[in-house]
Amino acid sequence: MSRRNIRAVMRKEIQHIVRDRGTLFMVLITPTMILMIMAYALTVDLEHIPIAVLDQNRTKISRAFVQQITAGDDLDLYAQVGSIDEIEVMLVKGEIKAAIILAPDFSEAVLSLRGLPMQVIIDGTEPESGNFAVDHIGQRIERFIREAMSDQMQALGIPEEALLPIDLRVRAWYNPGLEPRVDMIPGLISMVLGFPALSVALALAHEREHGTLEQLMVSPIGRADLLIGKMIPYIFVGMANVVFMPILAMLWFDIPFNGNFPLFLLLSVFFLFSILSMGIIIGVFMRTQAAAMAVSFLLIFFPGFFLTGIFFPIAAMPEIMRMEAIFLPGTHYAVITRGLFLTAVGMDVLWPYAVMLVGLGILFTGVAALFFRKRLG
Amino acid sequence: MSEIEAIIQTNGLTRLFKEHRAVDALDLSIQPGELFGLIGPDGAGKTTTLRLLAGLLQISEGEGSVAGFDLRKEAESIKPHVGYMAQEFSLYAELTVVENLQFFSEIYNVDRTEVAERFERLLRFAGLTEFKQRRAEHLSGGMKKKLALACTLIHEPKILLLDEPTTGVDPVSRREFWEILADLNLAGTTIVVSTPYMDEADRCARVGLIYAGRLVICDTPMAIRGELPGDLLELQPEDWRAARRLITSLPGVMQVQTYGESLHVIVDSAEHRQPELKQALEDQGLGFRSLRSAPPRMEEAFISLINRLESEEGL
Asked: Is the pLDDT of residue B1 over 50?
């Protein structure tokens, strides 16, 4: 290990990052940009879902019911239809996402407390909207029973609870509004920090493509010195993102940061070390920048998105996927970011994840140094 | 055979790429202070040879030593003593001339107290002093090559391995580059340089011709020129096409090479054939500006050798 050699490579790499606009953009602007785009794309609350109603009952009660269902911003009455065939046409054309069919004996059944004879049809090709419609129709039914029916029920001497057997009230801790972006954005930070790793992979492949690596190979520089010197500047630029993104999350998206900020910075350095080591491995094995790019998406971004538990709980994955998730730095960092943003946990809870990050970093750097030969061919 | 110990020595040096023998049983012996030229057609194995000597490629068979270190076992120990310039030597484009020198001085661990003096000397040497703050990407092709050489020289290597350093460089820069090499050689640096240009081969003390991975001939340029069988007649006809057709069929003519509008005719004996040729041309009414006996150059010798090898291979 020669500190002088490491410093020389570091200085050269920083000059490259600062002077090459493409690289500078990728490491400083892209992560924030992608974070913003994804935060908006993935956390938009659904509203104004168009539905159709086939009312076979046509009474005051059924009309009141339909009005109640479509009273809010969540569900819009697209059309009152006369037959089930019309519903099918509208579903196929995508004009509606769901349809409600009220049975001919709807009002009778309601008044005799036999239930609500109705059917909800959803577009299974778009289950998100369909499930949303079902949830909201359910909420509206509750309200219908409470508000529209209360007079009749009181007249009949029936307590409201008879129609509402269980009154479940859920309280979500740490994210009281259950807003998706509150837990999503801290998780997404780990994904967008894959860009510095992509940059380091590209930088190494660039040197190979342009022949400068050949020139380094004939020099006496140590393999590890070269790789470490190359990685450290990207940890610096990664940290610039790490400082900036929570501020953006707090000011722009109103997300709380409840944890310890210095601890967050420290653990972020660990994360950058391990994710950049993945980038270094890719740069060591890939001969061209195009290949490094493709493999980075395959090994850093896709798994970072699907396997680190940001969107899909790791506990729900098949065992082999869970094994893979353990080897992804993002998995551990997502726990850390959520923990620090939302639950304000400390090192007493987070230490296993910190250990995993450092361990993975050492493992990946070791593999990279082992397979990086100062020889061609 | 040699009194001084060779600084580069290889015995049966071979490099295989899959089945292909890119370098095939090469025996080289280069003395300290020698300026050695490697010539040969594209794909003959020049680059592979230089990469093997620089420790960049693993040896498949045979052995070699550079600066007293074994190529197989001590490749890393060789590196501080060797300056290697790849064919597509690429500088760090975003770095300035001085920053490139600075970088290489640090990875070669050049003594800090000597750095300033060496920069100044190398910049002057390469004619880059006034461009030292310019980024490498904005230099001309010739200046890039000279900066590359300066970076290669920053640790004052005993041995320089240069892979086609002047390919794609304009003639003026080429001349300047060779003058720099001559100075270095004079100062005692051993230089091994590969080149596709025959006039450059003439500037070397010794030349090795590589063909299909094998060292076909290794001698002084003078001796190689002497390898040309027969003598050379240089003819400048008015209609070279007709003249060529006629001459090829004449007795005693071994080979006709075309150089623009003139013909280089290799004959078994200039003394006998020159008058015969003149007579034949006059008989046919073919005019010519000059016909003279000329000393053979590397180029004729080289082409003649390659032709002979190719026809041997064809058999």
From this structure: no
Closest-approach residue (CA) in chain A for B58: A375
> Among candidates A274, A282, A297, A305, which has minimal Cα distance to A371?
A282
Q: β-strand B214-219 against B206-211: which pairing, if any?
A: antiparallel
Identity of residue B116: A
DSSP-based three-state secondary structure for B291: strand
Poorest-pLDDT segment among A40-54, A94-108, A201-215, B39-53:
A40-54
CA angle B1, B3, B6 (to 5 degrees): 85
B261 close to B240: Cβ distance less than 8 angstroms: yes
Class of domain A49-162: alpha beta
Task: Give B45's contacts (C-beta < 8 A, 6+ positions apart).
Answer: B15, B22, B23, B24, B210, B212, B213, B214
Domains and CATH numbers, chain B: 8-220 (3.40.50.300), 229-295 (3.30.70.100)
Contact A216 B107 (CB under 8 A): yes
Query: Does the beta carbon of A214 lie under 8 angstroms from any beta carbon of chain B?
Result: yes
Nearest to B263 by CA among B279, B245, B276, B283: B245
Enumerate the H helices of B126-197 as residue ranges. 141-153, 171-186
- 3-state helix, strand and coil shares in percent for chain A, rounded to the nearest 5: 70, 5, 25
ipTM over 0.90: no
Domains of chain A, by residue range, sit at: 7-42+177-371, 49-162
Q: How far apart are the first and last CA of chain B?
A: 35
> Could A218 and B108 be called an inter-chain contact, meaning their C-beta atoms sit closer than 8 Å?
no
- Token pair in block for residue B119: 């920069």
Q: Note the pLDDT of residue A180.
A: 65
Q: Token pair 């190719």 is at which residue?
A: B310
> pTM of this prediction?
0.78
